[in-house]
C-alpha cells in the first residue's frame, strides 16, 4: 500500500524565474525568431514520460497491454534529467503515453521536480486519487489537466477504457479543494476532451460537467485516427460543426472557456488561426521517453519513430544540436516536412495554440476559444481543405509537401 502522507511535510514553492531561466528564455525565443538551427539555448518545456504503463485501455489510444516494469523510467534517468535540465527549463510536464499517477514513486518524482521550482504540469485520466500529491502540486501552483471524453457514465466508461465518472469526480473534488485552499488561479485545472463521432452528442454535457465541478476550461482535441476509422470526425462535418457550436454556446452560458486545441478538421479550421510556420516545438520543446529516447513534441510521445537520439548513447547536447534535430528545424523553416515527421503537416493544417504561451508569452494571441471567436469553426468545401493524414500511406509518394499547399491556400480562401 503506497503512502504519500510524508509529502505533506515537504516544503515547496511556485515557479521561480531565476536569472538562468530568464536568459535561456530570452535566447531561445530569439533563436526561434531567427530560425537558428543550432541553438545556444536549451528547451523551455520538457516532457518527461515517467511510464508507458496505464491503468486504462481507451480504445483510441491502446489495447490494454499488461503492466511491464521495464516501461517505467528508471530513477537514475529521472535524476539525470533533473540535474541537467530542470534548472534551465520553465515547464516540466510529467506525462507521456501512459498514466504517471499509477507509479508508487509518482509523489517523489513530483517533489523532486518542485525542488527546482519549475512550472509543473500533469495530464492524467484522473482515476487514481492521491490527495497529498495534489496538495503538494497545488502548493506549488502546478497545472493539472484531466482527460474527460464524456459526461454520460456509460459512454465515459466505454471511451475511457474502464474509467468511471464517480472515480473522476472524487479526484476532481480533491484537486479543486487543494487549488482553492492554496489560492491557485482557477484555470490551473482544465479538461482535455478528445472529440470523435462517438461523443459529439455529449460534448456540451462535458462542458456542463466542468461547470458543475468548478473547472473553468475545456480544451477539445479531435481524435487522431486513421480515416478508415468510422468515428473519425471527417465522416460527418455537419454534426461536428453543430456539436462544437453547441459546446461553445453552453460554455458561454455556464462560464466555461471552451478552447480548441486543434480544428476538428482542416475544412473547419479558422485559416488565420491555424498554427503559423514555423511551429516552435522543434526549438523550445523536448520530450524524453521512459527509455531515454529524446523527441521534440508532446504530440508524438508514443512512438520512437519520432525521436532524434537516445540518452543511453549520447548526451542531451549531442542530440539537441545533432544533425537530425538541426535538419528537423530546417524542415520547419522551409516548410518541407519529411515523411518521417508527417504528423507535423497535420499541425500546419489544423492545430491551434494549446499551452505554448506558458513558455512563449506572445503565443497567447493564437488561442481559439468561445471567448476569442464568436464562431469556433469556419466551414469550407472539404475538397479545398483535404484531410491531412497523421501517417503517410505505405505506398504514398516520397514527395515533400510544402506547407503552403496546406495553409497558404486555406488563408487565401478566407481573404
Ligand atoms: C496519451 S494520454 C496520457 C495521459 C493520461 N493517461 C491521460 O489519459 O490523460 C494524453 C492525452 O492524449 C489523449 N489521446 C489519447 N489518444 C488520442 C487520440 N487518438 N487522439 C487524440 N488524443 C488522444 C488522451 O485523451 C489524453 O488527454
Ligand atoms: S488515453 Fe491515457 S488513460 Fe487512456 S489508454 Fe491512453 S494513456 Fe491510458
Would you mind describing this structure in some detail?
The protein is of the alpha/beta class and 415 residues long. 33% of the residues lie in helices and 11% in strands. The chain is built from 13 helices and ten strands. It has a ten-stranded mixed β-sheet. Helix 3 (106-114) links the parallel strand 2 and strand 3 (119-124). The chain is globular, with a radius of gyration of 20 Å. Mean pLDDT is 91; it is low at 396-415. The protein binds S-adenosylmethionine and iron/sulfur cluster. S-adenosylmethionine is lined by residues 54, 60-61, 95, 97, 99, 123-125, 147, 192, 194, 221, 223-225.
Amount of beta strand: 5-15%
The profile of the biggest β sheet is:
10 strands, mixed
Helical segment count: 13
Oligomeric assembly:
single chain
Can you lay out the helices and strands and say which pair or pack?
Layout: H1 19-33, E1 45-48, H2 75-85, E2 91-93, H3 106-114, E3 119-124, H4 131-139, E4 143-147, H5 153-159, H6 165-181, E5 189-195, H7 203-212, E6 217-222, H8 237-254, E7 257-260, H9 281-284, E8 285-288, E9 293-295, E10 307-310, H10 316-320, H11 323-334, H12 343-350, H13 403-414
Parallel strand pairs: 1-2, 1-8, 2-3, 3-4, 4-5, 5-6, 6-7
Antiparallel strand pairs: 8-9, 9-10
Helix pairs in contact: 3-4, 4-6, 7-8
Bound molecules: S-adenosylmethionine and iron/sulfur cluster.
Amino acid at each position: 500500500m503506497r503512502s504519500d502522507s510524508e509529502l505533506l511535510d515537504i516544503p515547496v514553492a511556485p515557479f521561480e524565474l531565476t536569472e538562468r531561466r530568464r536568459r535561456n528564455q530570452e535566447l531561445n525565443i530569439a533563436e526561434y525568431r531567427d530560425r537558428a538551427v543550432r541553438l545556444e539555448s536549451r528547451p523551455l518545456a520538457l516532457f518527461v514520460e515517467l511510464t508507458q504503463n496505464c491503468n486504462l485501455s481507451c480504445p483510441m489510444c491502446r489495447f490494454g497491454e499488461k503492466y511491464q516494469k521495464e516501461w517505467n523510467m528508471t530513477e537514475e534517468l529521472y535524476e539525470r534529467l533533473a540535474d541537467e535540465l530542470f534548472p534551465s527549463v520553465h515547464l516540466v510536464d510529467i506525462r507521456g503515453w501512459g498514466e504517471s499517477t499509477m507509479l508508487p514513486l509518482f509523489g517523489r518524482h513530483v517533489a523532486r521536480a518542485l525542488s527546482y521550482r519549475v512550472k509543473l504540469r500533469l495530464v492524467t485520466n484522473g482515476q487514481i486519487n492521491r490527495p497529498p500529491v495534489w496538495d503538494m502540486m497545488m502548493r506549488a501552483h502546478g497545472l493539472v489537466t484531466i482527460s474527460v471524453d464524456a459526461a454520460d457514465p456509460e459512454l465515459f466508461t466505454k471511451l475511457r477504457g474502464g474509467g468511471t465518472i464517480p472515480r473522476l469526480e472524487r479526484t476532481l473534488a480533491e484537486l479543486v479543494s487543494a487549488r482553492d485552499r492554496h489560492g491557485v488561479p482557477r484555470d490551473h485545472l482544465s479538461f482535455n476532451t478528445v472529440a470523435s463521432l462517438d461523443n459529439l452528442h455529449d460534448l456540451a454535457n462535458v462542458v456542463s460537467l466542468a461547470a458543475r465541478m468548478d473547472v473553468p476550461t475545456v480544451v477539445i482535441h479531435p481524435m487522431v485516427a486513421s480515416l478508415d476509422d468510422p468515428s473519425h470526425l471527417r465522416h460527418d462535418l455537419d454534426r461536428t460543426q453543430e456539436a462544437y457550436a453547441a459546446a461553445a454556446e453552453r460554455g458561454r452560458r455556464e462560464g466555461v472557456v471552451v478552447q480548441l486545441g486543434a480544428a476538428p478538421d482542416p475544412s473547419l479550421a479558422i485559416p488565420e488561426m491555424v498554427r503559423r510556420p514555423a511551429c516552435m516545438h522543434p526549438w523550445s520543446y523536448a520530450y524524453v521517453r521512459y527509455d531515454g529516447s529524446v523527441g521534440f513534441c508532446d504530440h508524438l510521445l508514443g512512438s520512437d519513430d519520432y525521436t532524434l537520439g537516445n540518452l543511453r548513447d549520447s548526451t542531451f547536447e549531442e542530440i539537441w544540436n545533432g544533425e537530425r534535430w538541426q535538419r528537423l528545424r530546417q524542415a520547419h523553416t522551409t516548410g518541407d516536412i519529411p515523411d518521417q515527421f508527417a504528423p507535423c503537416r497535420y499541425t500546419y493544417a489544423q492545430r491551434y495554440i494549446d499551452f505554448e504561451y506558458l513558455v512563449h508569452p506572445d503565443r497567447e494571441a493564437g488561442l481559439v476559444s468561445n471567448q476569442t471567436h464568436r464562431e469556433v469553426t469556419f466551414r469550407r468545401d472539404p475538397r479545398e481543405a483535404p484531410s491531412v493524414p497523421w501517417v503517410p500511406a505505405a505506398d504514398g509518394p516520397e514527395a515533400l509537401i510544402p506547407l503552403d499547399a496546406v495553409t497558404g491556400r486555406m488563408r487565401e480562401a478566407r481573404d
